Amino acid sequence: MNVLIIDDEELIRNVVKEYCLNEGYTVYEASDGIEGLDVLEKENIDIIVLDIMMPKMDGYTFFQKMKEKYNIPTIVLSARGEEYDKLFGFSIGIDDYLTKPFSPKELIARIKAILKRSNNNNLEEIYTYKGIKVDFKGRVLYIDDKIVDITPKEFDILAYFIKNPNTAITRDQILNKVWGYDYFGDERTIDTHIKILRNSMGKYRDLIVTVRSIGYKFICDEK
């Protein structure tokens, strides 16, 4: 697997690189978004570890330009850990978000989980309920026959809900099933993603209900 690390701090690049090399990954480096785009033109990258605050081209600008040509899972490393920063990142399609200082072991766990999901998208069925249609193989959400621009994490959460209708699901269960690793951070990240997902579902947002003191439930009247 090929990992691209984009960060203007050489020390951070070296730490991430060391842990990735220990996992047998091939590592490419860039110190800003412009260099990162150059690497993408030359190499086949499987996952990106991306800093946000960088000179020449910041991380979010890089990500948006990257998405015009590539569909590469991306983990953000950022010193900016406010909820609105994470909310913005998730809303534009970032797969995961780690706040600096971070645990390299946790980063590797997240990389493994994302790569595993990317290699195991074998669902082929189409799910329909009311005005919702979900193409699992194509990873596309339709609302009233219109394609909805949905982030990868939103899709994974919705798919998990659909596979477990009318069941109260805890935040821990969502983290373990959707993120695919033992989460070390703030469980409120789930609430942030649910907020984004509900907005994407429009008038069907109320199908995802909050279960007090537990988590969430996807309401479906069909058997």
Main sheet overview: 5 strands, parallel
Q: Strand share of the residues?
A: 15-25%
Number of domains: 2
Percent helix, as a range, is: 40-55%
**Count of individual beta strands:** 12
Which runs of at least 5 residues are low in confidence (pLDDT < 50)? none
Order of helices and strands: EHEHEHEHEHEEEEHEHHEE
The CATH architecture of the largest domain comes to 3-Layer(aba) Sandwich
Q: Average the pLDDT over all residues and give the rounded result.
A: 87
Find the structural class using helix and strand composition.
alpha/beta
Q: What's the CATH topology name of the largest domain?
A: Rossmann fold
Reading side by side through the largest sheet, how are the strands ordered?
Answer: 2-1-3-4-5
Question: Which CATH class of the largest domain?
Answer: Alpha Beta
Number of helices: 8
Under CATH, the homologous superfamily of the largest domain reads Response regulator
What value does the Rg take, in angstroms?
A: 18 Å
Dominant shape: globular
Question: How does this model look, in words?
Answer:
The protein is an alpha/beta fold. It folds into two domains: 2-118, Response regulator (Rossmann fold, 3-Layer(aba) Sandwich); 126-218, Arc Repressor Mutant, subunit A. Helix content is 41%, strand content 22%. It contains eight helices and twelve strands. A five-stranded parallel sheet has the order 2-1-3-4-5, sandwiched between helices. A four-stranded antiparallel sheet has the order 6-7-8-9, with helices on one face. Strands 10-12-11 form a three-stranded antiparallel sheet. β6 (126-129) and β7 form a beta hairpin. α2 runs parallel beside α3 (59-67) and α4 (83-91) crosses α8. The radius of gyration is 18 Å and the shape is globular.
